[in-house]
């Protein structure tokens, strides 16, 4: 089973979800991670490492081929230097948005899943604007 955290155009209801995910997702779970979320003038978001909540979904896939397709979409090539990729795929910790199973002040950790992050230097080169609420939607842009 492949698990991927999505926070932008791959989220349910967003532009790339139907094309890449809808008919392949086994399950989805609202989730968040810690990072920094930016809106890019190109019409999509970027997440970097950081300490603020970034809201999205954990998507479950049965077919590992999904990673190759998402790598292509996100312009990630494992053989390139990280600075040469648009995004870099890495494991990150994610947490449940379900507060019923959570100790106050301590979110429930779901585990490590794949996510696509951008280097902060590139975010600034592309003109990224910090999204303070940690929630991106094409309809907000």
From TrEMBL:
<feature type="domain" description="Gamma-glutamylcyclotransferase AIG2-like">
    <location>
        <begin position="4"/>
        <end position="137"/>
    </location>
</feature>
<dbReference type="GO" id="GO:0016740">
    <property type="term" value="F:transferase activity"/>
</dbReference>
<dbReference type="InterPro" id="IPR013024">
    <property type="entry name" value="GGCT-like"/>
</dbReference>
<dbReference type="Pfam" id="PF06094">
    <property type="entry name" value="GGACT"/>
</dbReference>
<dbReference type="InterPro" id="IPR009288">
    <property type="entry name" value="AIG2-like_dom"/>
</dbReference>
<protein>
    <submittedName>
        <fullName>Gamma-glutamylcyclotransferase</fullName>
    </submittedName>
</protein>
<keyword id="KW-0808">Transferase</keyword>
<dbReference type="InterPro" id="IPR036568">
    <property type="entry name" value="GGCT-like_sf"/>
</dbReference>
């Amino acid at each position: 089973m492949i698990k991927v955290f999505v926070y932008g155009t791959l989220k349910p209801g967003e532009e790339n979800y139907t094309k890449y995910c809808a008919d392949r997702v086994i399950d989805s779970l609202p989730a968040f991670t810690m990072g920094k979320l930016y809106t890019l003038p190109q019409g999509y978001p970027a997440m970097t490492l950081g300490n603020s909540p970034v809201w999205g979904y954990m998507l479950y896939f049965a077919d590992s081929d999904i990673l190759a397709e998402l790598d292509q979409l996100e312009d990630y090539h494992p053989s390139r230097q990280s600075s040469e990729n648009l995004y870099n795929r890495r494991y990150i910790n994610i947490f449940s948005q379900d507060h019923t199973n959570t100790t106050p002040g301590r979110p429930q950790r779901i585990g490590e899943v794949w996510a696509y992050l951008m280097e902060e230097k590139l975010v600034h080169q592309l003109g990224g604007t910090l999204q303070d609420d940690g929630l991106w939607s094409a309809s907000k842009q």
